[in-house]
Amino acid sequence: MTKRILAGRSVHPVGLGCMNVAWAYNAAPPHDEAVALMRHALDAGCDHFDTANIYGAGLSEEILGEAIMDRRGEFLLATKTGIVTDGDRRGVDCSPAAIAASLDASLKRLKTDHVDLFYMHRLDPSVPIAESVGAMARAVEAGKIGGYGVSEWSAAHIREAHAVHPVTAVQTEYSLWTRNVELAVLETTRELGIALVAFSPVGRGALGGRMSDPAQLPEHDIRRTMPRFQGENWTHNAGLIAQLAELAGEAGVTCAQLSLAWVLSRGEHVHAIPGTRRIAYFDENHASGAMALDPAILARADALINQQTVAGHRYPAHFLALIDTEEF
């Protein structure tokens, strides 16, 4: 297994996205199971844990703080700021004051004095990028963060931020069925020497090949609002995923492992952070980091599921206002 560089550290190319234990999908696992998952992941060699202040209103950070912060030197820790979900107050706030306050609150929940990577979760168009980046640079100077990143930003804005203070990582959705970064961000990060961290690399679970009827998901599950999981779109996409599962079987891997291997094949600077609530699924995902699949298999997966073949947009219309990444 070849490790890759992130925030100046050599890490396993497949990290753990920690949203699922607290928010957005299905029901959160019991607290003890969430703690056990984090500890198991660390014991198994996972050395990149990614969370955010909004995941369960800080719950994901608190779980990490309880579960593994006694072994702080063994892993890279990333969290995020910027998205506001405070009652009727919703949107993005990346003002310097908000960044500073949010960072201190996250450090308290995480039970640590520093994070290795601190992302602006979305672009705040109301604040000059230089001001937001300035706050991040001051946090680096104070030793509270090792480096900063941005999430779902366009190539032009990444370049603007990088010119003020070097960007450590760009996090964005990237998978077989979400290719927006291929318009500009993938090449921009490669050119500038910035790590690209792919969230939802298994298509929010769809590309794992186990999802039957998204209409049966709990009412609060955000996938129920996403066009790709609805009606005729899902019927069409499920047919593609069934073919992907057959291809994975031919390669002797699972559907999720093929999906992750494809993402990692897109560049040596690319990392993936699939999320899960289950130890068995973590083990499956983690193993993909050491797999060397036949390029012909990856090419067939690429041709099977892509922006042209999938049905439906990745987000509902009301989510798009927060997305800066280039759109098809």
Automatic annotation (TrEMBL):
Which Pfam families does this entry report, sorted A to Z? Aldo_ket_red
Identify the domain of life: Bacteria
The record's listing under Gene3D superfamilies reads:
NADP-dependent oxidoreductase domain
Q: Which UniProt keywords apply?
A: Oxidoreductase
Boundaries of every NADP-dependent oxidoreductase domain copy: 14-305
Q: Which GO terms describe its molecular function?
A: oxidoreductase activity
Give any Gene Ontology cellular component: cytoplasm
Q: Which PANTHER family match?
A: AFLATOXIN B1 ALDEHYDE REDUCTASE, ALDO-KETO REDUCTASE YAKC [NADP(+)]
- Its protein name is Aldo/keto reductase
